[in-house]
Amino acid sequence: MSNDIAVRVDGLRKRYGNTCAVDGVELEIGRGEVFALLGPNGAGKTTTVEILEGFRRRDGGGAEVLGEDPGRAGRAWRSRIGIVLQLATAGPELTVREMVRHFAGYYPRPRDPDEVIALVGLDEQAGQRVGALSGGQARRVDVALGIVGRPELLFLDEPTTGFDPQARRQFWELVRALAAEGVTILLTTHYLEEAEALAGRLAVLAGGRVVATGTPAALGGAGRPTRVSWDTADGRRTVRTPTPTQLVADLARQAGGEVPGLTVTRPTLEDTYLELIGDPA
Question: Each residue of 124-151: pLDDT tens digit?
Fold first, then answer.
């Protein structure tokens, strides 16, 4: 595996009885990249990530994570990855500082626990018991436990589920800070705006397959036809065009100024996502 590649997946497959949860997934994630994995419930996201984390055996295909097969890698490899699961933080009777220091002892070269607590914005809560924290603060503890071992690769599974908008934005800043340090981040999320805000590239899974890969801008409408609508003497007219600016200029010239009822609607990442997963809406 190239030193520039953190994750490479080739034809990954996993079945549960008669159900094919992962059906030939292909992925490549560069070191230092923030990569988002999108898809509806049952698309195969969780199974794919669990295979990459070494928690679940694959039935076919290849997988390399930080240069090793996650199904065979040992403790030294595990110390190089960090995982933030959907589950709430355990150990509510411990303080934040006690919890982070405890987990730091599992790693050969951990970060300073107090430094980690500051990084996730919990300085003022360091002496509080985890069970007394708000949901957003407890989620920050989860992140602290995921990064205290200095991971080269961090898995974030639905990290902001249940967050209010302010807490979500604060968490985004934390993710950006980790990415700036060179940490590779694999993010699974249902929030499309989160993927757009954080990820350099993303993949959409549907039915156990990757149905699209690219940058949020490319998948979100760049280069795709834009819908231009305006009023005419015969009624409302709508045209889909890859060159909306030119069309609007032509319409304005023909109208001698303002175009009646003009609207320009560019496709969004959500539009593309719903098309890709086959949503009837």
Answer: 999 999 989 887 788 888 888 999 999 9
Look at residues 143, 133, 142 and name the one whose alpha carbon lies nearest to residue 93.
133
Cα–Cα distance for residue pair 152/156, rounded to 1 Å:
13
Q: Which amino acid, 120?
A: V
Amino acid at 194: E
The label of the residue with tokens 């949860």 reads 21
Stretch (H or E) spanning 263: strand 263-265
Q: How far apart are the C-alpha atoms of 70 and 55, rounded to whole Å?
A: 8
Instruction: Give which of 201, 193, 96, 192 is closest to 140, Cα–Cα.
Output: 96
At 270, which helix (H) or strand (E)? helix 269-276
List b or e across 159-184, with b for residues whose CB sees 16 or more CB atoms inside 10 angstroms. bbeebeeebbebbbebbeebbeeebb
Task: Judge whether residue 1 has pLDDT over 60.
Answer: no
The two structure tokens encoding residue 44: 């195969």
Structure confidence by residue, pLDDT tens digits, 211-238? 989 998 888 765 678 889 999 989 999 9
Query: Which residue is associated with the tokens 């920050």?
Result: 140
Instruction: Specify the DSSP class assigned to residue 86.
Output: S
Helix (H, G, I), strand (E, B) or coil at 62: strand
Judging by beta carbons within 10 Å of its beta carbon (0-12, 13-18, 19+), is residue 152 exposed, middle or buried?
A: middle
Share above pLDDT 90 across residues of the chain, in percent, rounded to a whole number: 56
CA distances to 148, 182, 219, 228 from 120, rounded to whole Å, are 11, 17, 31, 45
Among residues 203, 128, 143, 150, the alpha carbon closest in space to that of 173 is found at: 143
* CA–CA separation, 95 and 132 (whole Å): 9
Q: From CA 154, how far away is CA 250, in angstroms rounded?
A: 50
* Rounded Cα gap, residues 55 and 47, in angstroms: 9
